[in-house]
Amino acid sequence: MNVSPPSYDPSVAVPTLGVEEEFFLVDPHTRFLVPAGPAVAERAAQEVGELVTKEFALCQVEGRTPPCRSAGELRGELERVRGALVAAARAEGAELCASGTAVMQEAGPVQVADHPRYQAGRAQYRSMLDDFAISALHVHVHLPDRELAVLTANHLRPWLPLLIALSANSPFDRGRDTGYASWRSVIRSRFPCLGPPPYAASWREHERLAVTIADTEAMLDAATPFWDLRPNPRLPTLEVRAMDVLHDLDDTVAVAVLLRALTVTAASRARRGDPGPVWEGEVLRAACWRAARDGWTGEGFDPVTGRYRPLAALAEESLTLLRPALEEAGDLDEVAALFARLSDRGDGAVRQRAWAAGGAGPQEVVDQLVLATARGSGPRGEVSGP
């Protein structure tokens, strides 16, 4: 990557950030998904309120953090919410599992919650939703100016393949090894309105593109696009949705603060009139596909040149690019440690395959994911396993 001098404005305050994590609920004996989401969300809400919610599929539940200023604060909130969900799941006879796809699942379509929006999605997309049970990590960075958020997103678009590669955590689906590092990304890619957002020169153009796509019925609602990167429709944030949920809480924190540094650096460039690289949507979709296939084990798409290079080299150069923003927020060590872990042990897909090879196949993968997810929830999560 040809790294130009960072366009970073230290006078701009470090923005807050927040995280959403989607989890599967599994039976501790069969390891299959269980439709316990509504009951688990209701029980966990007694402890953490609106920081937990139901999901599209009945076998899932979501945890979210309030806005946080530091990596330490974010880690504490994630532990608190995960802890409430782990305890609630066990009270309902289930376990919390952080994987981008269901490692094991009974045959048949996914059971969908009885919500008007979800039922509208079922009517619109039909059988495309039969196996649409996937769990993501969403990161929000405070950026209330909609115009600036769109211009910042233009800079972040070519980073999406790298984010998919470093968060890959879904090699298995319904008991089989798919050959991909992020099968969740492949499932999402079948939808015409998911994936990298189109390049937009302004907020008005962003809205026009969403309306045009919604008119084709490829998108449920122009006001709520589900692109991998978007100004959030309800919150004053720029939201990144490309990543698989991660079972390692330290990885989750590091990805979140990495995205904050990317956003701060990109927003500074956008403020100074830099329009960002105009990569075609087809190029980025292809790069995202390759990242989903290979994860951190392959070569990565260089956000500047478009060439494919070793991911370790891209990671090192990204630290140079983002160092001012990372140091200002006190996050440099978090991100450097993430890249070191990826080099040492691989991504989540590598770890899932190692568990399968060293134990009882997919059942062992589920057991290890459950234990790893619970370890990220503080002391309560470590009292028992499947």
Automatic annotation (TrEMBL):
Gene3D superfamilies: 3.30.590.20. The lineage of its organism: Bacteria, Bacillati, Actinomycetota, Actinomycetes, Kitasatosporales. InterPro entries: GCL_type2/YbdK_subfam, GCS2, Gln_synth/guanido_kin_cat_dom, YbdK. GO terms for molecular function: ligase activity. It comes from the Bacteria. Belongs to the glutamate--cysteine ligase type 2 family. YbdK subfamily. Its EC number is 6.3.2.2. ATP-dependent carboxylate-amine ligase which exhibits weak glutamate--cysteine ligase activity. Keywords: ATP-binding, Ligase, Nucleotide-binding. HAMAP family: Glu_cys_ligase_2 (MF_01609). This is Putative glutamate--cysteine ligase 2. It catalyses: L-cysteine + L-glutamate + ATP = gamma-L-glutamyl-L-cysteine + ADP + phosphate + H(+).
